[in-house]
Amino acid sequence: MKKIFAVALILLTLSVTAQKKKWVNLFDGKTTNGWHTWKETGVKGWHVMDGVLMTHGGNGDLVSDKEYGDYILEFEFKCAPKGNSGVIYKVIEDVNIKELFAPYASGPEFQIIDDVNYPDKIKDVQKTGANYDIQAPLDLKAVKPAGEWNKGKLVIKNNVIEHFVNGIKTASYEYGSVKWADDVAGSKFAKWPYAKAHAKGKISLQDHGDMVSFRKIRIKEL
C-alpha cells in the first residue's frame, strides 16, 4: 500500500509540474480579458483588431490581472515611427502607496522604442531591448525598424533575468544582486519601490503616449 501511495504521489507531483510548464496565452487575440488599466477596473482605450492588442496613446498602461514569479514571456511588438513603449515586469500595484505612480516605479522595463527616429536624443540604455536606463542592449542591431513586427522574449529564473529581441540576447543581469543594487542606486529609480527586489509581480504593457501594438503574448511559468 505504501508503495502504491508513493507512486501515486510521484505521478501527482509530475502532473502538477507539467501543468505549470504549459504555455498560457495572456492575450487571446479577441479580447482584453486578463488585463486591466493601471489601478483601475477594466480596460480603457486599448482595443483589439485582427488579433492585435493596441493603443493609439493616452490610454494608460495595461497591467496583467495575475502576478508571476519565474517564467518565460514571449510576445511580438510593433512600435510606431517615433514611438516609445515597453514591457514592465515585477510590477507592484497598490493604490495606498503614493510612490507607485506608474508601473515603471516598481519594476524593470524591457524597453521598446524607435531607436532611430525618436524625437528626443536617447542613450543606448534607452534603446530597444535594454533593461531601461540600467543596462544598454548587448546587441544594438537586433531590432527591426519601427513599423515592423519584432519578437520579444523575457526570461526570469532564480533572479537571473534575460531580454531577447528577435532571438538575440540584449540584456542579462541578476536581479537583487549587489551589482544590481549599485546600478539602481545610481539611477532615477533609487528612491522608488523599484529599488527593493521582490519575488513576484504583474506584467505591464506601457502606453507612453504613442501608438504601439502587441500580439501573440504567452507565458510559461517555471
UniProtKB/TrEMBL annotation:
Residues 1-18 form the signal peptide. InterPro entries: AL/BT2_dom. Residues 22-220 form the 3-keto-alpha-glucoside-1,2-lyase/3-keto-2-hydroxy-glucal hydratase domain. One of its GO terms (molecular function) is hydrolase activity. It comes from the Bacteria. Keywords: Signal. This is DUF1080 domain-containing protein.
